[in-house]
Design goal:
With 412 residues, this protein is mainly α. The chain has one domain: Amino acid/polyamine transporter I, CATH 1.20.1740.10. Helices cover 76% and strands 0% of the residues. The chain is built from 18 helices and no strands. It is globular and about 55 Å long.
């Protein structure tokens, strides 16, 4: 197997786990709650590996994407509700990511934020128009691995490894004030939502078809999801641990990307800062491309219109028009909407509302023996899938009330 095939999972991981929303929740979780929320990342990583593998297997066996299944399983009216909600939150996330690139350019080159956003929008337009899917996948999958600097930083920080290990065990603070418990619950919901964002499975399943996977690629699918998403999980955990070790003792609240980058400048100096900013830029850019393309993919798939990066603009005009429109709206959100960090936080929380419909469809389709034949979900996949479906349903119900109760995470 070509090792570069793993980058489909890696771009989904670094651009799905460690996008702007994940940077917000993980860095603030470490700075505010030290190591006690690591278990949420562990559970979320297992969940996205299970559903990512399922979505990739469905695509390889049946050539169905998630929104092919949504229309077939849920019917047109309910499916349309799922489509509209998914498109709205996906474009909102894209707007946050474009704004995030603008912030990275501002940090790196001292550019005005608006100039950085316009440069980001123009660069993304050119890259997505000219590069084939495989090049987009491999380029940002590999460049996003610069984020490994956050893992390297752990070995030079004063990490309490015993406390970090205990943080992998699910727990609830029992001595905190009610307000602090509510804030803790908000971060649990936010981290789980950001790890299991719906667009990750949209993009991954679509990518499997773009790469022309078949039944022969099922072992690759398992390896890609297992390794790729696990890389993202480890990076997210590293950010939490580094924030607990480097930022919390100094009373730094990482509300801005520059504060998150301090996690690597403390042990490595300016080279660490450079690598951290570059890694965040590549990961956020990968997420911007994923979300922009995903918005176009799911609309075309639902309405059975021609789609795919392998097609020209004349062969798939709706697909190209939709992703260009999604990018234009994202740039407008970045320029005229709330600050990118706030936009990303809202996007992650509201994305949780689309989780149950997305995942119930994937589980339902993967369990269809008539469609999947011998590659149908086994008892373990169905059991674990049902457990995570219950989890994301609880998350969807709790997300908005917690957003309101905590004033977007501001109460203490």
């Amino acid at each position: 197997m070509n090792v570069l095939e793993l980058t489909l999972g890696i771009i989904s991981a670094t651009g799905g786990f460690v996008d702007l929303g994940e940077l917000i929740f993980t860095a603030q979780a470490g700075a505010s709650f030290l190591y006690s929320l690591l278990w949420v990342l562990l559970i979320g990583t297992i969940g996205i590996v299970v559903y990512g593998e399922m979505a990739g297997r469905i695509a390889a066996v049946s050539r169905q994407t998630v929104f092919d299944s949504v229309r077939l399983r849920l019917g047109f009216p309910v499916g349309l509700i799922a489509l509209i909600s998914s498109v709205l939150v996906t474009v909102l996330i894209c707007g946050a990511e474009v704004g995030g690139i603008g912030m990275v350019l501002q940090l790196a080159f001292n550019l005005p934020y608006a100039t950085g956003v316009l440069i980001a929008g123009g660069a993304l337009l050119v890259l997505m128009w000219l590069l084939p899917f495989a090049w987009i996948e491999k380029t940002f999958g590999i460049l996003g691995l610069v984020m490994l600097v956050f893992i390297a930083a752990l070995f030079f920080l004063n990490v309490d490894w015993k406390a970090a290990a205990l943080g992998l065990i699910p727990s609830i603070p029992v001595t905190d004030t009610p307000a602090h418990l509510i804030l803790y619950a908000y971060f649990v919901v936010g981290i789980l939502s950001s790890v299991m964002l719906p667009y990750e499975v949209f993009f991954y399943a679509t990518g499997a078809i773009e790469e022309k996977w078949t039944v022969k690629d099922l072992s690759t699918n398992r390896l890609v999801t297992g390794v790729g998403f696990s890389v993202g999980g480890m990076l997210a955990m590293a950010i939490v641990i580094a924030a607990a070790a480097a930022l919390a003792p100094r009373g730094i609240n990482p509300e801005l990307l520059g504060a998150t980058a301090l996690e690597s400048i403390i042990p490595f100096g300016w080279w660490g800062l450079l690598l951290a900013v570059a890694g965040m830029g590549f990961a956020i850019a990968g997420a911007a491309i994923e979300t922009c393309l995903s918005a176009a993919y799911i609309v075309c798939q639902f309405f059975r219109l021609p789609w795919g990066k392998s097609k020209s603009a004349s062969e798939a005009p709706h697909f190209y028009g939709l992703w260009v429109a999604a990018l234009a709206i994202a740039v407008a959100i970045a320029l005229f909407g709330p600050p990118p960090m706030q936009t990303a936080e809202y996007a992650v929380i509201f994305s949780s509302l689309a989780l149950p419909l997305t995942y119930v469809t994937v589980l339902w389709t993967g369990s269809d023996r008539k469609l999947m034949g011998e590659h149908v979900n086994g008892a373990l996949s169905n059991t674990v899938g049902m457990v995570f479906l219950a989890i994301v349903t609880i998350v969807a119900v709790a997300a908005v009330p917690l957003l309101i109760l905590t004033n977007t995470g501001q109460i203490w």
